[in-house]
Amino acid sequence: MINIMNSDFNNIKSTLDATDLQLLATLQADASISNIALADKLRLSAATCLRRTKRLLQEGWIEKQVAILSSDKLGQLMGHSVTALIEVSLDKQGEELLQAFETRAVQETAVQQCWRVSPGPDFMLVVQVPDMPAYLAFTQRLLTQDANVRNVKAFFSVKRAKFGTQITLPTP
Predict the structure, then answer these.
(1) Closest CA to 163 of 105, 79, 85
(2) Domain 2-58: which CATH number of 3.40.710.10, 3.30.1330.100, 1.10.260.40, 1.10.10.10
């Protein structure tokens, strides 16, 4: 068993056993798997499998289950799309100012990921917009109008070689 303590769970001690880790690994690879197929794969009863999955959701081990869309196919359908990786440096880094920018960034639908980083820039954003006019509108809303934004450096994707969401889990 692996004992994990995390303050995000209000200091409640949670234990993951080998079956929990297998369940998490399987769901990471394919969250669309039916409970019956998942139970068969893990050699559990369907009821036990469902109970464990619900517990992992309730305890926050699974944040959410989503469908990951193909940006390439959607870009072809819509005519184009722009993915930008943006470094943002703020002039002042007080906690309130960092939190204010972070709050505004995560409210933007174009922002797929927002990371507070160190050293270097204060934030890294992954942004997906349909075209350059949409990118310009996005930068004016989030970056240009914020007097505390000191520096912005954008990198535009020409090809996505890999995109993953899986976290390496300890082996039981």
Answers:
(1) 85
(2) 1.10.10.10
